[in-house]
Structure to design on (147 residues):
């Protein structure tokens, strides 16, 4: 059985899901042979629209938006090697629905309003750790207290 070429490996990875350029380069680095030019391969894949940081950012932001706030989404994208501007643009869509998503995350975790000050603080810290803005957290906690 023959060893897969670097291009075949790259196409196999991209067929499964979107990858950022940095992430794909990291995964392929261990398989680069003396005759391979990784940067040229990545440039070719980008030119053919098979590799796109923008598409990856949009896809990843959408997947993360089920659990996290816009700040955490942007941080996760930057950690995956995307530049700050692209990460901010991809997470901007999440900012529009942040209060609704924070409420959904809060409901899944807590199910009922806080009964005391300590519990309210714990709920707020949880939402903050998920990257939701203070305004969204305040709206969720206030709305829960009013229910």
């Amino acid at each position: 059985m023959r060893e897969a070429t670097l291009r075949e490996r790259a196409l196999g990875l991209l067929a499964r899901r979107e990858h950022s350029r940095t992430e794909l380069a990291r995964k392929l680095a261990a398989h680069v042979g003396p005759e391979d030019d990784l940067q040229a391969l990545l440039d070719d894949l980008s030119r053919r629209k098979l590799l796109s940081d923008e598409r990856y950012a949009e896809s990843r932001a959408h997947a993360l938006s089920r659990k996290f706030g816009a700040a955490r989404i942007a941080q996760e994208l930057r950690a995956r090697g995307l530049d700050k501007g692209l990460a901010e643009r991809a997470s901007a869509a999440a900012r529009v629905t942040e209060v609704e998503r924070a409420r959904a995350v809060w409901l899944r975790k807590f199910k009922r309003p806080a009964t005391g000050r300590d519990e309210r603080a714990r709920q707020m810290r949880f939402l903050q750790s998920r990257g939701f803005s203070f305004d969204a957290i305040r709206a969720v906690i206030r709305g829960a207290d009013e229910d």
Summary: The mean pLDDT is 91. The chain has nine helices and no strands.
